[in-house]
Amino acid sequence: MPTPFESAQLNLQLFDLRREAVLREARNWFLRDFNPESFTELVALASGERNASFRMVLGYWDMAASLVTTGAIDANAFCAAHGEIFATFSKIYPYLAELRNASGEPDLCKHMEAVVLSTPNADTTLKRRRAAIIAAANARQPKS
């Protein structure tokens, strides 16, 4: 079990990685513009020019969550510092089984899943985050 100081140090390093320009832009796209309403739409949105962004965001958060699942970072400290993982996971969670099946990767995002779903009221939190994201995306739409 890491000490509180060690968890804090790793959390700060993870936060610093998020500031890298390409990852920051990919995260912005994922959180603002990636809003699939079906698995077919997820595939369409994550293909082509945005495939690298899709993979980068999921790869970053799964790697970060792996530090929790392997015991390098305390889970409570991680979740307190990185709430964005819940918003990110809420976007793929409804389609995760199909995504794993289609990609042939049964462990895809398994660390994110383990960390997020281990929190109290995870399903409620995911639904709330997803609803807030959709409401924000709708508010950004031009009024006709």
What does this structure look like?
By secondary structure, this protein is mostly helical. It has 9 helices and no strands. Helix 2 (21-32) crosses helix 4, helix 4 (51-69) packs across helix 8 (110-117) and helix 6 crosses helix 9 (122-140). The longest helix has 19 residues, at 51-69. The termini are far apart. The mean pLDDT is 93.
Rg over alpha carbons: 15 Å
Helix and strand composition category: mainly alpha
The multimeric state of the shown protein is single chain
Q: Total helix count?
A: 9
The count of DSSP E runs of length 2 or more, i.e. the number of strands, is 0
Profile the largest sheet.
Answer: none
Describe what is shown at a glance.
It is built from nine helices and no strands.
Features:
144 residues; mainly alpha
Secondary structure: elements and pairs:
Elements: H1 4-17, H2 21-32, H3 39-46, H4 51-69, H5 75-81, H6 84-92, H7 96-103, H8 110-117, H9 122-140
Helix pairs in contact: 2-4, 4-8, 6-9
